[in-house]
Design brief:
Elements lengths: L14 E5 L7 H15 L4 E4 L19 E2 L5
Parallel strand pairs: 1-2, 1-3
Length: 75
């Protein structure tokens, strides 16, 4: 069962929007590794990764309302 960020069950999600910390080295490689592992457990649900214009890791923006999951810099 997949849950929303508010803790409610998602009925039949077909896509999750993911905001990764955008300043990791080789972010495309990071996204590919996540996608490959995700496809093994939920191939019916695609992942949409936000770009750095949509999510800056929490420096100047709050997490976007459309993000189902996000990672921010926690210095």
């Amino acid at each position: 069962m997949l849950m929303s960020r508010t803790g409610t069950a998602l009925a039949n999600p077909t896509e999750l929007t993911v905001g990764l910390y955008p300043y990791v080295p080789r972010i495309e490689q990071f996204q590919t590794a996540i996608q490959n592992q995700w496809d093994k457990v939920h191939p019916e649900v695609s992942l949409k990764f936000l770009d750095e214009n949509e999510w800056d890791g929490g420096y100047d923006q709050d997490p976007p309302q459309n993000a189902d999951v996000y990672v921010f810099d926690a210095l």
